[in-house]
Amino acid sequence: MAKIKMTTPIVEMDGDEMTRILWKMIKDHLLKPYIELNTEYYDLGLERRNETDDQVTIDSANATKKYKVAVKCATITPNAARMTEYNLKEMWKSPNGTIRAILDGTVFRAPIVVKGIEPYVRNWKKPITIARHAYGDVYKASEMKIPKAGKAELVYTAEDGSETRELIHDFEGAGIIQGMHNINDSIESFARSCFNYALDIKQDLWFASKDTISKKYDHTFKDIFQEIFDAEYKEKFEKAGIVYFYTLIDDAVARVMKSEGGYIWACKNYDGDVMSDMVSSAFGSLAMMTSVLVSPDGYYEYEAAHGTVQRHYYKHLKGEETSTNSVATIFAWTGALRKRGELDGNQELMEFAGRLEKATVDTIESGEMTKDLALITSIKNPTVLNSEEFIKAIAKRL
Ligand code: NAP
Ligand code: MG
To answer: Are 261 and 103 in contact (CB under 8 A)?
Structure first.
């Protein structure tokens, strides 16, 4: 059989620990036998980031601007323990943060739904994709403890020196205050990424905030979304047969619980942080969650939502068997290959992505899975495979 050709490369961002081991197995068993894999390779493993003073991360993000599609393996975000473990020159920033800052994107997280791994919410039949606005609000807030009676105000000083003030509270005793902000540009990018992605995957888009209480702050989010929708996306949505729907955050939460899924839920920064953990655990497993960074300029970076699975890697290093779930990493690859195919008009590549996803889902649904899934599946007597056996079982079906 002739291998599938790729005209344009995908940016390949290799990573760390157990996911780096899975990365190679996926390429060797599931991709290279079928595709003349055309990637521009960047090693984002921590050692290489340290050697290059993290330049390799920046280069990989810039390459994504050039080729538009990237696939990323999970990477270590250094902390104090990693400083010693890897003898680092500096506590390098999170690669995901660096890449997101360069591409200015929104992260969409979606569960991979398979029969036998039932969501805890019975009526959820289709995936719910969470889009989290990753800038500002409480994550870039200034806070103050108020020790005793006194007046707290918001003060804005314009460039010409003129001041606008708003009373926060006249304190009679001790208390606390917080000042947070957001930027119209960032909200606009967020809105465009959401509208574009909804058109991409042909699903409805929901957005919610607390505009009834926060009449200026949250209301601005609502207004920006609506203005951009009306001006740029209304007709495209009608053509695609999808809907943009705004509601109050409380109402959204209630509707989500009663829905059957199958839409994108755009969330403000804090809501997205909290709700993505709720949605992913309700769908069963972090190892079955994919993540894609979509920039308003149309760049895509696909990855698994989980980390490097450090505990399994240490077992692997001791020569012990591991049963690490590679599904989300496989779907990161299929997401990137399908998008590459779409952009290049490469039908074969798109079809291959579909076949690999189907082979992966079928393997689990036929009862062959890794340990994390075997613990939660409703399938009777599942066969627990180790990391490599699972990938080989998929290859066999493929
Ligand atoms: P993690 O790698 O997601 O793993 C946490 C635990 O979840 C694992 O110990 C394992 O539980 C389970 N798990 C996660 N993925 C799994 C999989 N594919 N198969 C089976 N079980 C899986 O999170 P972490 O241990 O907190 O972080 C490890 C490293 O990853 C850190 O250095 C962190 O900085 C990095 N990280 C990177 C990213 C990213 O690159 N996007 C995201 C998050 C974290 P059991 O041990 O109970 O089996
Ligand atoms: Mg969180």
So the answer is: no
